[in-house]
User: Fold this.
Amino acid sequence: MAEHKHPNYMAIFYYLAILTAVELGVIFLPISKFVIAVLLCVFAVWKAALVAMYFMHLKIETRTLGLIAVTPLVIATLLVFVLLPDGFAVAKKTSDDKKVAAPAAAKH
Amino acid sequence: MTAATAHGAAAIEPAESPLTPESWGKLGMWIFLAGDAVGFGTLLAGYGAMRATSADWPNPYEVLGINLTAAMTFLLICSSVTMVKALEWLSRGDRNRAKMFLLLTAIGGALFVSLQAYEWTHLIHRGLHINGNPWGASLFGTSFFLVTGFHGLHVTAGVIYLLATIGVVSRRPRPMDSYNFVEITGLYWHFVDLVWIMVFTFMYLL
Assistant:
C-alpha cells in the first residue's frame, strides 16, 4: 500500500502532445475525407486509451475496473447505429416535403 | 472497522476478490464516471447521427477555427500532467509540492473555462446561435453549445473539486492519508481531459 508505482508521466505527456500535433497535421493531408476521418478516430481512441491506461492507472488496476470503463464505450458505439435510422427518416421526410412544396409553389 | 480487521476478514475469505483492493471510493468514482461517460457518449452519438444524415452540415474546422481549441486541448493535457505530478509528490511525502501542483491543475482548468467563454462570445458575435447559424444546419449550433457546454460544466465542477481537494490535503495529519482522495480526484480530472480529446476530434477536427 505504501509503495505506489508511478509510470513515467512525462513520457506519456510527450506522447499525447505529439499525437495532438499529428492530428492537426492530418486534416491538411491531400487524401480522401474518409481516410482522414478514420485516422482522426484512431488517434482520438489512441490518446484516450493512453490517458485511461497511464494517468487513470487502468493498466495496474483490476480487470473489473477495466470492464466498468469499457462498458460505456460499447454502449455509445451501439447508440450511433440505433440513432442513424431516425436521422435518415427525418432527412427523407424533409426532402419529401420539399418535393411536395416545390410544385405547389410553382402554380402561383 | 480498522485496517487490521479488514485485512483479517480478507484473509478468511480468499474466495471473495474485491473489485478494487485499495478503496471503495475509487470503485464509486469509476461507476460514476461510467455513468457520466454514457451521458457524453449519448450526446456525441446523437451528434454523429444528426450530422451523418444532414445535407447541409457546416464544415466545423472552417467555421469554428481550431487554433485556439488546439491550444485549449494542449492546456488540458498539461493540467492532467500536473495532476499526476501532485499524486507523485504526495506519495513521496511532500505535501507542499503536491498542493502546489493541485493548484496548478485548478488554474489550468479555470484558464480552460475562461478560454471557452471567450470562444463562445466570439462565435456568438459571428452568428452561431443555439437555434441557427449563417452556415447551414441549425442543429450545428444546438449540438455545439450543448456538448461543449456540458463539458465546460464538468471542468468548472472539476476546478471546485480540485480546490476542495487542496483543503483535504491540508487538513489530514499525514501526506499519505490523502493519497487515495487525491487519486480519486485525479480520476475525475483525467476523465474530463479524456472526454475533451473525444469532443475536440469529433466536433472540431472531423
Remarks:
- Helices of chain A lie at 9-26, 33-55, 63-107.
